[in-house]
Structure formats: C-alpha cells, structure tokens
C-alpha cells in the first residue's frame, strides 16, 4: 500500500469530508477522490461510503493499521536523519505540568556536563507530545495527568506501550486564599460538581479527570501554567493541580482531596529507536527514572 494513499485515507476518515481532507493536504478534491479510489481498487473493497462520508467495516480496520503504519514510517525517517544530526542534539517534548523541579534539575545536570548540548523544548498538549515522541520528531516525551495512585496514565494512540513513571505527587484542588473551601481539611470532588471550574484544555483538561460532571465556568486555551494559577487566584474558578506547584503561594490554598484518591503523575516516553547510552537523551532518561 502506498503511504501517500494511506495518509489521504486517514485525513478523510478523521475529517469526515473529502473537501476538508483536500484542504488539509493542499490537494484538489478530485485528487483526493482519485487517491481513495486507487486505494480501494488496490485492496479490492470499499473503505468509505460517499454520501454521507463514513467508514465501512473494512475502512475501520484499515484506519487502525494506517495510523500505526504512518507513525512507524515517520519514526524510521526520524531515526535515519538522526544519524546526520549535529552532536549534542536533544529534543524534549512536554505537557505543561510535566515541567517539574526534578525535570529542570536533571536537564541542568546534563547541560553542565556538555558545553555542546543544544536542547530543544516543545511544550504542547498530551496528544501532540505522544505523537511527537512516537514519530521520533523528539527524542523524549514527558506527559502528565491525574490518576489513581500507582495507576499508569491513559495515553491516546499511538502511545508508548511502556511509559516509565518519573514522579507522583498529591493532587489538590487549588482555590483562592479566602475562599470558603480554603478552610476545609479535605474535599470530595463529587461535592464540587456545581462549583465553577477552569477548563484548561492544554494544561489540566476536565475531560481527562476520572470524575464526571465538573462544570466549566471559564475556558482557558493557553498552555501557561502561571496564567492558570493566576486565574484561580483571581477567583475565576477552581483547578485540579499537583500539590508541589502551589508550595509557597500566599494567594492560593491547596485543598487535599478526600475522594476519589488521586495523584498527579509524570511519565517518560522514549522515541521508538533504541538510543545509544552515551547520547544526551539516554543520559537524561536515566536521571529522570533512576
């Protein structure tokens, strides 16, 4: 199967539209239709219905394979080009709350021992970090989320099947100093269903929390953690955050969670290709997980 045809098929399947796929790929709609027809002829079966555009049973099966195949092709390309990269290359992709003091300290240790090191940091949301690491676009990925103690994070495809825990810290409800909840010894999240929460889709999205029914009072689309904590401090809503993030803050109070039991977890993802242990990425990974 031609990977160009697979890429076009994935775009049509994900957008649900030949015209939207054409716009994304910068093709004409006619070219997209011809490529889908060529792929169907190659496989001898219909992959999509046309009006409306929807996956057939065969198309659903191919979509699962196609996504992984395209990721592996991208990873192969990145692995080959990595051999020509200048010494000291280190790409690190992180979700905003994955940048913790232990991560900063580990990177500082690596930089102190290598004057030629030129790190490149990418701060992005969870799906983007997972994809960047799986395709080899970055050497390491650090992702975070809230989960039950010792439970791994649920990663979107094409997630690393063997992520490694880096840190685990208590999850707390961040409230402004002076808020009625600030005097509570603990709170149950189920009791806060009617409270106003800040929906920070790129930092701490409500839909990834293991609790249903939390109501967003304000939507924040950015990835700056300081902006999120500033919004909480100003009384715009509550947020679920890792306890260490609020240490030393006079304007915010970290209220412990009684139920459900939750922790903030940071996990390390590696690029698919095995790394030379002398490379900066391998040394950083050893510091983070050792």
Task: Characterise this structure.
With 290 residues, the protein is α/β, with parallel strands linked by helices. It folds into two domains: 3-82, Arc Repressor Mutant, subunit A (Orthogonal Bundle), CATH 1.10.10; 89-290, D-Maltodextrin-Binding Protein, domain 2. The chain is built from eight helices and twelve strands. It has helices at residues 3-15, 18-25, 29-43, 57-82, 101-112, 126-134, 225-233, 280-289, and strands spanning 48-49, 54-55, 89-94, 118-123, 140-147, 164-176, 187-188, 196-200, 215-220, 239-242, 252-259, 263-270. The strands form three sheets. Strands 3, 4, 5, 6, 7, 10, 11 and 12 form an eight-stranded mixed β-sheet that branches. α5 crosses α8. The longest helix has 26 residues, at 57-82. The radius of gyration is 22 Å and the shape is globular. The mean pLDDT is 90.
**Content of β-strand:** 15-25%
Mean pLDDT across all amino acids: 90
The Cα radius of gyration reads: 22 Å
Order of helices and strands: HHHEEHEHEHEEEEEHEEEH
Shape: globular
How many β-strands, per DSSP? Answer: 12
Instruction: Please give the largest β-sheet.
Output: 8 strands, mixed
Q: Low-confidence parts lasting 5 or more residues at pLDDT below 50?
A: none
**Share of helix among residues?**
25-40%
Distinct helical segment count: 8
- CATH topology of the largest domain: the name is D-Maltodextrin-Binding Protein, domain 2
Structural class by SSE content = alpha/beta
